[in-house]
Write a structure and sequence with these properties.
3-stranded antiparallel β-sheet, single chain, mainly alpha, 9 helices, two-stranded antiparallel ribbon
Length: 226
Amino acid sequence: MLAGLEGVRWLMASLLYGAGLRLQECLQLRVKDVDFAYRQVFVRDGKGGRDRVTMLPEGVVQPLQAHLGKLRTLHRKDLVEGYGEVWLPHALARKYPRAGFEWGWQFVFPSKKRSPDPETGVIRRHHVYPDTLHRAVKRAARAAGIIKPVSCHTLRHSFATHLLQSGSDIRTVQELLGHSDVSTTMVYTHVMNKGARGVTSPLDRLEQARAEYRVRPGAPQAAGVI
């Protein structure tokens, strides 16, 4: 599915899957919250108002740096034209009135067009509209022949399940996802037990026993019916 995406959409989807971000967390990501040196992403004010740190996938480092290079040029152009201010939470905007013009506070995935703030009327470049990625992911899933329901949140689910499948500790996965309770993360342990409730069908056990019997030294070539 990821192979069916490109450009900014691929970058966003790759962060959802590679870092376990929620869509809104990805949209609200600021330049200063991406730490290339330590390969980590700071998630500010996530679900439940919690901050956390998650990984920055190696595979997105160079494309993301190139993306930010283009954005910095765009931000400088906005400043020259008398714009370049980004929305900040009201408390921060009051405390640091010029912070909204700084490069570090800019959205990692800004809109292509400037638009007026519905509350203040200030012309700003807001982050990408959520439906932009929603539609792209659904198109890519259809093109990949995936028949199961797929959404942006599926990528976060896959992040958790694939980490657990590869042997990651559930407490570590809990921290990366930003769950306050490990019981929420435990939902993903179903991948460790394939089948209903992790029980092996008696038919499968029968076939396994017959296969083992056939390869046993001295076993007759034609096994009888069990």
